[in-house]
Fold Oxygen sensor histidine kinase NreB.
Amino acid sequence: MRIAVKDTVKGREAEARISAGLAARLAWSLWATIMAVGVASLILRYLNGSALTAALEGAEYLAEILWWDVLVPAAIPAYATIGAVVASRRPENAIGWLCLALAALVAVQEAGWEYTARAFEAVPGSLPAGMPVAWFSYVLNPLMLVPFVLILLLFPDGRPPSRRWRPVAWAVVAGAGLVALSAAVGPVVSAGLRTELPNPVGIEGLGGVVGFVETAWFPALAVLLLASIASIFFRWRRSGGVERLQLKWLAFVGAVVGAAVLCGIASAVVSGFSYPTTLLFGVGIAGITTGIPLAIGVAVLRYRLYEIDFVVNRTLVYGSLTACVVSIYVLVVGYLGATFRTEDNLPISLVATGIVAVLFAPLRDRLQRSVNRLMYGERDEPYAVLSRLGQRLEATLAPEAALPAIVETVAGALKAPHVEVLLRRNGGFETAAQHGKPSGGEPLVLPLAYQNETVGRLVVSPRAGDEPFAPADRRLLEDLARQAGVALYAVQLTDDLRRSRERLVTAREEERRRLRRDLHDGVGPRLAALTLKIETARNKLAQDPAADALLSDLAERARAAITDVRGAVHDLRPPALDELGLVPALRETAAQYAGTGLKVSVEAPAALPPLPAAVEVAAYRIAQEALTNVVRHAEARSCVVRFGLDREAGSLRLEIEDDGRGLAADRGTGVGLSSMRERAEELGGTCAVEPSQADGTRVHAELPGVLEVGE
């Protein structure tokens, strides 16, 4: 039984491979046929010359040239190539076959019209079966937009967004079929000629019916086209992640086409078939013929729609190689023929073939590298990526800028949508730097190690399509991870050093606060009591001069000790901080400048949370130094000291802004500015001096470590 099941599974897999192979062969056979028909139509177009446009003037001439000489020649290879690539890799998806069908209809119809033009107008009677070809081309004309509307309606998975959109598909198929049927039995055939031809199978009395059907078809087609464009936006709004990215360019092109069609209809109603009408419809038709396949191509190439990157890669390489080889051959043959003016083409062809043979291999390698870089980034050039990463790390002055440099380099090298570096800390991993947004696929996680010790992780999301990284990608990422591990270890050491410094500064200020409290509340009162007792003893021993002199000396020494203790207390921590608090202490300091002509105001939240001693002292000293600089150098009339809280970062924000003369162009970094910056950096914060909006100076400091900011 088990053997039978295995045989059944293997049989189904074999059938699937055969079906996929047949689909691929069919798709590329259709592509070759379509391209051949398209080339034939271009040849006929060239041979016909100006036969079709000689009688046209103004906007009609512009429309003829725009359609037949620009848009149609671009639409045929664009839709045919996209269709063949998708159908060969995803034969179960209708999008590829619809693109091939659209390219085939356009190519056959264009070739038929050019054939008819040559048979009836350019060189009358020169080609056989002119009437059947004209009739077939005329009947085929209404069917061309059916696959286009269906492409918009079914992209990207081959199904409509929901059941409610199915009537649009049935309506466009039924409407186009009805118009084609009416054209088939109508009394005349209009196959792009200046004059209409009698329909050999037409019914004479149906002229009015055919005219009514054709007249009603154009507004109905516009409504169906706009409905299919609306389905793109409906699908785009409901999608997310990679699918949303795949649809955005198609939605953009659809919006342009819809707007151009609506404006073109309005212009036609107002001014008829004028130049503005022609240009508007030209924009819409350009979006239909070239914009849509380009948008699908972006979805396939950039966001790996249908996961056909290998097929696209080889198609781009060998398609470009073929174009280059043919161009080189033609240029060499043409140049040598014009130079030597010889009629013997064999030597020239041999020389051109030799040049092409010599250039073939290096040209293919260069094209392969260019296409690989376009699709996969620089995974095939690991040395260049590693060298660039090393240069960026060497040029990075601040340690915290090293990690963003790493993630940006990795993302740019592999075209990864999201790269993240996790730093090991407190028994877990924290995000230290990231670039881009996750693609939704399973990310690749690589350890970042230094001397066999894991210091972090490198997380790289796959390119769109959830396809895992190729071995070449993994090798490059492993090389980058080894170099990034050393940089991350250095960043970790710097971070640990900064944290240790912050803890030392905080502990120092807390210890100073404790010492000040002990000296102020303990030693100071004891010395004062000792002085009082000495004075009391002097009063009682006034009769003994020697004792009085000794006690007087002791009292003087005690008063000197009290003065020293008070000085030490003041140096350890500004007394005003303990007596008044941070904001009232600064307001008291600001009041001291009232006689200098400077108006100082202090703005702060209603209630600041309890601050660590180090944060209080740093904020007080920075504000004090900034106010001193304003008085000495700014010549300002007013100055504002602002306090704020960054609750997410848990930091105290301090700003001192004046309306003085601003910063001098040749200013240096004095002791005061350096002191303010050092006090902030001791806590892991920042302090910057910059011009203010009022043409004065602004000091901005961020002091982390604020406790209980949420209370």
